[in-house]
Design brief:
By secondary structure, this protein is an alpha/beta fold. Helix content is 36%, strand content 19%.
């Protein structure tokens, strides 16, 4: 995945290719299935069907992802057995299994490598990066971030609740669509919680020839100058096992199991 994200800029220009990667974590899974959420971030959901959950489900069902080999669309997933059976989750995603990876790809013990990836992206794609973050970032920090980005889009923290408002939803989608339309072969780095997943879908629909990457909280230290997750100060706190996904031909269901 890192190699796909950080291709040299001239190479990406010549290939006219893109990439999208979204991660389905606990918050997104609970929104999909109408479960209440009390997030570590300043957003929550009281439970029941949400507009954002419906839009995310619609995005997962979008079949065109399967056919664009020049701009592959990857999903980071995990075994959310406490929320839904694994087979049910896979059945919701209209995408070839080869485009599925692990949702914790950038965090926990991988976080030190992710920070190195961030540094290389800033070095190699300076002023060719669009940063999509929450509007809690200080003006001083925004000035610093502007030294290596070509544009910064700000979205509010409490996106799932605001998404219920039609006007906000239309404006939020319109902002990312307009931005995606104005660029080609650029790198979009997302860190706006569950909104990232739906907005990447709309950006990709408008222009699949950018790279849209959901880095989530791994950007927080860089954009907020503070630790927001335990893994950022102790990368060994949570060890992610390797998983194997298999299809049980007798039961006709997908199954997943750890291998270490």
């Amino acid at each position: 995945m890192a190699a796909l994200i950080s291709r040299p800029y001239p190479d990406s220009m010549n290939n006219n290719s893109g990439l999208a990667f979204i991660r389905l974590g606990d918050g997104e899974m609970k929104l999909l299935f109408g479960v209440s959420v009390k997030s570590i971030d300043p957003w929550s959901w009281p439970g029941g069907q949400s507009r954002l959950g419906k839009d995310l489900r619609k995005a997962l069902h979008y079949p065109k992802y399967q056919y664009n080999t020049f701009s592959p669309f990857y999903y980071g997933i995990y075994d959310a057995k406490d929320i839904c059976p694994f087979h049910e989750l896979l059945s919701m995603i209209y995408q070839h299994p080869k485009y599925l990876t692990y949702t914790n790809l950038f965090v926990n013990s991988n976080y030190p490598s992710t920070k190195l990836l961030h540094q290389s992206l800033i070095r190699d794609h300076r002023k060719k990066i669009i940063l999509i973050i929450n509007n809690g970032t200080s003006s001083q920090k925004l000035t610093e971030l502007n030294t290596w980005t070509c544009e910064i889009l700000l979205y509010p923290n409490n996106g799932p609740l605001l998404w219920e408002n039609d006007k906000f939803r239309e404006q939020a989608i319109g902002k990312i669509v307009d931005t995606a339309k104005r660029y080609r072969n650029r790198l979009f780095l997302f860190s706006i919680g569950p909104l990232s997943r739906v907005l990447i879908h709309h950006a990709w629909l408008e222009n699949p020839y950018n790279r849209y990457i959901d880095f989530g909280s791994t950007l927080d230290e860089m954009t907020k100058s503070r630790v927001t997750r335990p893994y950022q100060s102790n990368t060994e706190l949570n060890h992610d096992p390797s998983y194997v996904m298999k299809f049980d031909t007798n039961k006709r269901v997908f199954q997943v199991s750890p291998v270490d």
